[in-house]
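Troubleshooting: if your tokenizer reports a length mismatch, compare your output against this known-good record of 334 residues.
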Amino acid sequence: MTIRETLEQWEIEYLSPYATHSKDSKGRLKEEEQCDIRTVFQRDRDRIIHCKAFRRLKDKTQVFLTPEGDHYRTRLTHTLEVSQNARTIARALRMNEELVEAIALGHDLGHTPFGHAGERALNRVCPLGFEHNEQSVRTVDRLEKSGRGLNLTIEVRDGILNHQTIGKPHTLEGKIVQFSDKIAYIHHDMDDAIRGGILTEKDVPAEIGDVIGYTTNERLNHFIHDIVSTSFGKNEIRMSEPVAEAMQKLRRFMFERVYQNPEAKSEEGKAEVLMETLYLYYMKHVDELPDEFLNLLSEGEPRERVVCDYVGAMSDRFAIAKYEEIYIPKSWHV
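Known-good structure output:
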């Protein structure tokens, strides 16, 4: 018996009867030989961590564009916090920890530069539309490894596609990541807003604080414990009604005070113009795309989609540099 088979047997004996077992995976888009020491979901996690799109997350905006300070979240640190929340919940519920980790680490691989401002810009200017969850799946299926993709399992791809609130993951592990994503961004976005002087802990309304706590740590702890206690031993992942209601109130509070705050979002209009401008430029100068994207065109992919692939994959810094290279005059010198 190989190490992988031993791990698969351990899952069957130890994990919850409602967990997704590695041995029962629906497989990959392209069949391949199994690893002798890693389960299929461990391999997916490793492939995601080693891919280029994962590394680019370190220089992509979470909420605050180019903040002055070292401690504000980026898309990468957000991803790591989602993963940690999901793993904690999964371990407590005896769900498949490797599966939730793979989904969590891959859920935002298709996110644009400048956060949701970049996503809005591409969705507006591209006639095919642009949604970061769909682009994350396209990234792992089509864009990584020079067009070969990562060939992830059906379960991981499903969790990535359905991580947003409107999604309906087909596994409980995917549902855990869906909750963990919301918990993470509410937690750290408020923490960053307090650090930036936009909010104080005293601003949290009593109807929210009395239920889930008045500090970021209290709220994170309460959310995770509530999901574990409410879901334990059940074939579902959910929050208790009072906590779910408090989370909705907290999300509305964050939209009013942070996500739509003119001070916090003052630069987003510029970011959207920059993204639209780059998209329109490469639509007219498609020959300037890197070879891997030209290969996609030669294989019949729509020009609009391939230009979105390129512009959407950029980091904040690279997008700014490209804009300056194309549109900002340089000093003349001999």
